[in-house]
Amino acid sequence: MTRPAILVARAVFPEVVSRLRQHFDVEDNPTDTIFTPAQLIQRLQGKQGAFTTGSERIGAELLAACPQLRVVSNMAVGYNNFDVEALTSRGVLATNTPDVLTETTADFGFALMMATARRMAESEQYLRRGEWTKWAYDMFTGSDIHGSTLGILGMGRIGQGIARRGALGFGMRVIYHNRSRLPAETEAAVGARYVDKATLLAQADHLVLVLPYTAENHHVIGAVELAAMKPTATLTNIARGGIVDDAALAQALRDRRIAAAGLDVFEGEPALNPALLTVPNVVLTPHIASASIATRRAMADLAADNLIAALTGGVPPTPINPAVLPLRT
């Protein structure tokens, strides 16, 4: 019996590729080339499955050109690189890797918020430039985390993890806004109180964004929202690029309308708005919130689990569009 053929679109742990080879004819990408849309279509010819990352856009045009494709498995919790409607209409299963990165991402989000509030990037650059010659009472004074008000926009698993860290570890007052309010017992467990968006913006000393990217959430934080925040507040985005209007944020930072920002995601990444590189009061990291060895391996393993189950008659653990199951033959 002919084995299914799959494409592993980006470099990944060799052990995971070896595991996939036990089940499939695998074309991998050890040089980690990012394929153009045309190259991706070419590589997917004759393939029933694809192991993808956020770099690979899977939309209607690609699906029409790759009629044998049956499953796309994203090594990410987000899937805004997938046109889920087009995938579903063609009967192609989409999967992602939620849950396994929750705590690692919450750790990083809290660390980025703290680095932003305490001006760690600015002070390190100052030291590296050789400008540190004496102590001063106001040298790189920032804002406290303990006892302050933590605002969270988006209260899924990662948002709840950040809330727990703030309320239980740092004695923060935690407020949040979400599309739907959490059950009372969940709010109590994470020490958070629901407020409307206007209240969140007005009261938060440290605002953390942990909401998914959707068309409705595009630039949900723009010039108007930034102006509604405290001038002493910080903004941390570990969600997705496009949720924040990066141009408006750079201007707000330059004008000190807010104190500082910490950004792990950007519009159009890996490109970013050059204005963000010209303001000192921002901490910039290259989309690494889930980047611990254990968590990235768990993500890769779950993406492999999804592919193996989908193409060998099993039930994938984390389908995005389960309505297409069972897969067409």
Write structural notes for this entry.
The model has no long low-confidence stretch (mean pLDDT 96). The protein folds into 2 domains: 5-100 and 293-324, Rossmann fold, CATH 3.40.50.720; 102-284, 3-Layer(aba) Sandwich (Rossmann fold), CATH 3.40.50. The radius of gyration is 22 Å and the shape is globular. The longest helix is centred in the last third of the chain and has 19 residues, at 293-311. The protein has 329 residues and is an alpha/beta fold. The strands form 2 sheets. It has a 7-stranded parallel beta sheet, with helices on both faces. The chain is built from 12 helices and 12 strands. Helix 3 links the parallel strand 3 and strand 4.
Tell me the number of helical segments per DSSP (H or I, 4 or more residues long): 12
Number of domains: 2
Shape: globular
Spatially, the strands of the biggest sheet line up as 8-7-6-9-10-11-12
Secondary structure class reads alpha/beta
CATH superfamily of the largest domain: NAD(P)-binding Rossmann-like Domain
User: What is the highest CATH level, the class of the largest domain?
Assistant: Alpha Beta
**What value does the average pLDDT take?**
96
What would CATH call the architecture of the largest domain?
Answer: 3-Layer(aba) Sandwich
Helix content: 25-40%
The share of residues in extended strands comes to 5-15%
Number of strands: 12
Main sheet summary: 7 strands, parallel
Q: Remind me, CATH topology of the largest domain?
A: Rossmann fold
Distance between the termini: 14 Å
Question: Low-confidence runs (pLDDT<50, min 5 residues)?
Answer: none
Rg from alpha-carbon coordinates: 22 Å
Please trace the helix and strand order, writing H or E for each element: EHEHEHEHEHHEHEHEHEHEHEEH
